[in-house]
Amino acid sequence: MNALRRLARVMWVFSRYRLDALIDPDQLRHAQIPRRYLWLLRLSPVRLFPIGDEPRGRRLFLALEKLGPVFIKFGQLLSTRRDLLPLDIADELAKLQDHVAPFPGEMAIAIVEDALEQPIAEAFREFDSHPLASASVAQVHVATLHSGEEVVVKVVRPDIAEVIQADIELLGTLAVLLEDSFPDARRLRLRQVVLDYEQTIVGELDMLKEANNTAQLRSNFAESELLYVPRVHWQWCRSNVLVLERIYGVPIAEVAELKARGTNMRRLAERGVETFFTQVFVDNFFHADMHPGNIFVNIEDPDNPSYIAVDCAIIGTLTAEDQDYLARNLLAFFNQDYAEVARLHLESGWVPEATDPRTFERVIKEVCEPIFAKPLNEISFGQFLVKLFETASSFNMEIQPQLVLLQKTLLYVEGLGRELYPELDLWETAKPFMESWMAERVGPAAALREFAQRAPEIMAQLPRLPGLVVTAAQQLRRLERVVGHQTESLKLLQGRVDKLGRRTRAKRVVGATLILLASALLWGPISHSLQGAQDLGALAGLLSAVVGSLLLIRA
Questions:
Q1: Which sequence positions are flagged as catalytic?
Q2: 359 shares a domain with 392
Q3: Range of the structural domain that residue 515 is part of
C-alpha cells in the first residue's frame, strides 16, 4: 500500500511540474518506440496542467527535490553528464549536490543534543545553526570544539528513513512489474539491483558506518599525495551525527576558479584517474559517490594539486574474481584485443555458452573501435555504454548488480574529467596503471611476494614434510583401493538391477499372455452366462481376477 501511495505521489509531482514537457513527441518519431506510447504521451491528461513560468531545468530540479533522496541522487548522477544533457538542465541539477532545501537549524541542534545526551554548548564551543551545506540525506553545520579545532557536524534529516523505505518499495514494485511484463527486463536483474541499492542508500543513514569508511579511506591514502580525507572525531559520532575535521579547498565544480588560480588542470585530471584506479584495484575500497559536491581540490601548490574527499557513506568493493576480470577486460580493451574480450565474457558466464565467439568479437569491435585514439572531449562514455547495452541485449548478456556502483563511479569520473581537462585521453592515462597492476598481481614478482608471505607457514611445516609425503602416498593408495572396491560393488549392483529388470519384464510378458489366453477360453462361457441371465457371481470373480492381474502387471 505504501508503494501505491508513493507511486501516486510520484505521478502527481510528475504532473505538477509538467516533466512530460521535457520530452518532445515529435523528436521521438524516429526513435524505436512503439507508436502507442507516443500517442499516450500526446493524449496524456497531464498536458492539461499549465507549464508555468519556471524554466524546464528548474522544474526538474524542484520535482526531484520534492520526491526525496532516491530521486535526488539520480539527479546528481545526471548533473555530471553535460555531454548528454542540455546545459540549462545540467546547471540546475548540479544544485542537487549540496543545495537541497535545508531543515531548520533548531531541529538540527535538537537532534545533536538528543544524540549526544548533553546541551549543544557543552559539546561545542560554537555551533552555527545555519547549515553550511544541505544534501539529500543530511545537512552539515560548522562548529568549533572546546579545544579550538574547527569541525563540521553532519546531521541526518528527521524522518528520512520512512521516505527512503517508501521509495525502495516503489522501485521494487516497478522492478517486479517490468521483469514479469518484459522478458528483456529480466536480463537486467532489476530486483537484485534494487536490493543492492537499498543496502547502499540505507547504509547512508548510519553515520557510524560513514565514520568507519572515512577512517579506512584516510588510512589507505595516509602516505599519498593524491587524496586527503578528513579526520574523524569519534567521541562525538553517533548513528545520526558525524563530526569530522573541517577542510578547506576549492570545490571541483568551480573550474573557472581553479584555472584563475593557476592550477595545473592536466595533472589534476590525470591524478583523478590514478586516484580512481588506485581505490578500485590497489585498495579495493573506492568512494562510490564522487559527484562534484563531495570533491574539493587543495591548491596550496597550484602546480601540484591534490584531491580532498568528503561524504564517504557509499563505498564499493569487489571480489578478487571481479577485480581480475575487470583488469583483464580493461587491458584487452586498451590493447584492442577483442578476441580476448569475447573470451573473457564467455568464461565469466555473462553471455550464454552457445554464443559464437567470432560473432561476439566482431560486434564488440564495431562498438569499441571508434573510441580509441581520441581525446576525452571526443569520447562519450555514456553513449558508449548505450551501445554496449544494445550489444548485451542482442547476446542476452546479464547485467551484474555487483558492478552497478563501479559503473556509476566511472560515470562520475568521466564527468569530472570532461570539466577539468577535456583533452585528457582517459584510455592512455589508465593503461600504464593497469599494466603495472597486472604485472604485480600475476607476474614473477607476485609469485615471489606470495611465497615470502607464506614463508613462515612453509618453514613451520618443513620438518613434517617427509612424513606428510609418506602419509599422502599411503592415503592415495588407500583411496585407490576404496575406489576400486566401490567400482566393483557398483558393477555387481548394476548386474543385479539388470537381472531384476529382465525378470520383471519376463513376468509381465507371461502374465499378459496368460490373461489373453484366459480371456479367449472364457469368452464363450461369459457370453452364454450374460445371455441367460444366470448367476453372475462366477463371472464377477473372473473379472476381479483379470483386473487384479492387470494391476499386478502394472505394479
A1: 289
A2: yes
A3: 498-527+542-555
Q: Is residue 115 in some structural domain?
A: yes
Which amino acid is residue 131, in one-letter code?
P
Asked if residue 246 belongs to a domain, the reply is yes
Section 95-102 average pLDDT:
76
Rounded to 5 degrees, φ, ψ at 485 are: -60, -40
Pair 82, 27 in one domain: yes
- pTM for this model (two decimals): 0.68
Q: Is 533 exposed, middle or buried (0-12, 13-18, 19+ CB in 10 A)?
A: exposed
Query: Would you call 139 helix, strand, or coil by DSSP?
Result: strand
Q: Note whether 121 and 456 are within 8 A (CB).
A: no
Quick one: 123 and 254 in the same domain?
yes
Residues 39 and 166 in one domain: no
What pLDDT sits at residue 117?
Answer: 95
Sort strands 241-245 and 150-156 into parallel, antiparallel or unpaired.
antiparallel
361 residue type, one letter: E
- Looking at residue 160, its pLDDT comes to 86
How many folded domains does the chain comprise? 4
pLDDT at 122 over 90: yes
- Long-range contacts made by residues 299-302, C-beta under 8 angstroms, separation at least 24? 299/249, 299/250, 299/258, 299/261, 299/263, 302/261, 302/262, 302/263, 302/264
- Whole-number Å distance between alpha carbons of 442 and 440: 6
- Do 253 and 187 have their domain in common? yes
Same-domain status, 193 and 163: yes
Section 24-33 average pLDDT = 55
- The percent of residues in the chain predicted with pLDDT above 70, rounded, is 71
463 assigned to some structural domain: no
The answer on 124 and 61 residing in a single domain is no
Contact 350, 396 (CB under 8 A): no
Q: Are residues 443 and 326 in the same domain?
A: yes
- Is 315 within a domain? no
Residue 33 — very low, low, confident or very high, per pLDDT cuts 50/70/90? low
* Domain stops at, among 395, 426, 457: 457
pLDDT at 105: 94
From the list 273, 159, 191, 172, the residue with the least C-alpha distance to 227 is 273
Over residues 138-150, the mean pLDDT reads 96
- Output the pLDDT for position 334: 74
Q: How confident is the model at residue 80 (pLDDT cuts 50, 70, 90)?
A: low
Q: What is the DSSP string of 368-399?
A: HGGGTTS-GGG--HHHHHHHHHHHHHHTTPPP
Average pLDDT of the segment spanning 462-471: 70
What is the structure's pLDDT at 541? 56
Phi, psi dihedral angles at 532 (to 5 degrees)? -95, 0
